[in-house]
Structure formats: structure tokens, C-alpha cells
Amino acid sequence: MRCGRRPVVAGTPFRVARATRDADVARAIDVTAAAHRVDRSMLAASIGAGARSDGREVWLAWDGDEAISALWLARAEGTIGVMEMMTPERHQRRGAGRRLLTETLAAIWDASVDEAILLATPAGRRLYESVGFEVVDASLTCFRGLDDDVLGAIGQAP
Hints:
It is built from five helices and six strands. By secondary structure, it is of the alpha+beta class. The protein has one domain (2-153): Gcn5-related N-acetyltransferase (GNAT) (Aminopeptidase, 3-Layer(aba) Sandwich), CATH 3.40.630.30.
């Protein structure tokens, strides 16, 4: 999916902040692991390893002191790549993901940015379209070997 303009920030009550400390990145890993229903050690070794280097950033939506949604980004040559955005099921449909995505993109979208891009699962497509992303390519995917909980988390319920 592609968005060619800075989105309007959603008016929901959640606080959004960039992860600037190791403890914030650890919370983002926890949120992402909970949403994917996977072991956090895999995420810590992959996306967590370079979370704040070489054009990569992590942002969180907070409900009080609780991190409830995580957004992993990479920037290169005029493009913001949304690498991963996850909200655990118990926090979905409350506006945290919408606030996180729109406020983060609005905060980092400057004159050098031409577009934001992302790959969407069926579970996230409606949200992304509602904030200005457009489908540029669609394909049917098949995931083998994943349990029913993981398939449900990405909108591919068995």
C-alpha cells in the first residue's frame, strides 16, 4: 500500500512517543510479540536488534503507563517504510493504532518525504485505507504451518 501525503492526526486519547531508550524498544518488542502471539526472543533478535539505527525508528502508543501499540519504521531516499505495526487484540478497535500511525507519520513527514509504503494483511487493510493508503498491488497469500491463533492475528483465520 502507498500513501502520497502526510496524514491528518487522529483525535484519540492515546499518547504517542518515539522509543528513545532501550526500555522503550523492549516494550515495543513485548507489544509486537503479544500481537503476533510469538516468542519475544525471535523479535528481539530480528527487528529489535537494529531498532534505532540506520534510518530505523520505533514509536509507541501509550494508554497511561501501558504501551499498547507499536510501529516499526525505516526511512530511505524519500520513502517511509512501515515495516511492522501491531496492536494486541485486547487493545484493538480503540483508536490506538490509528493515532500511532497518523501522529508518527505526521511528525516525521518533512519536505524530503515523497511517500509512505507498507505491506498490509487483511486485518490491517481497512485501517490503512482510512488514513490515506491506497492499494498498489494485491495478492493472495497462503501461510502453512502456523497455528490458528497466529493466522487469526493476521486476518487469515482458518
